[in-house]
Amino acid sequence: MSSKTYESENQNNRIFELFDELKQLLANREMEDFSRFDPANNKRISVDVLEQIYEQKQHEVNQFQETWDSLDELDKLVTQNLQYTMHESNTINQFLHHKQKQEKNSVKRNKKGLNGIWRADA
């Protein structure tokens, strides 16, 4: 396996990991109505419960911040893949044009042979 293939596989695996992390984070995200924790509406809510919920939300904020930061890495990896793919496409396009030119020249050579002077055997 060439080093470029190995590097490409590693980059692709990292992209999948980043997407999986984001997917899992979003899947675990639950939108909740926090008005029930408002002490003005719920006199029975305790400071301990509010502190626990606050800590959970801070942890969630940190996870989203880490994910946001990893989007820079994801952007870099996807951009590299785009550049590689564009390079490969350009290379194949050059091969295609070269092959078309070869075939066109081959047809011209064959036609020249047919346009020569024809002499009947005596």
The number of helical segments is 2
Tell me the structural class: mainly alpha
How many strands, which pairing sense, and closed or not: the largest β-sheet?
none
Unreliable sequence segments: none
What's the count of strands?
A: 0
Give the radius of gyration. 33 Å
SSE sequence, one letter per element: HH
Please report which band the strand proportion falls in: under 5%, 5-15%, 15-25%, 25-35%, 35-45% or over 45%: under 5%
Molecular shape:
rod-shaped
Distance between the amino and carboxyl termini: 65 Å
The proportion of residues forming helix, as a percent range, comes to: over 70%
Secondary-structure blueprint of this entry?
Elements: H1 3-28, H2 47-114
Helix pairs in contact: 1-2
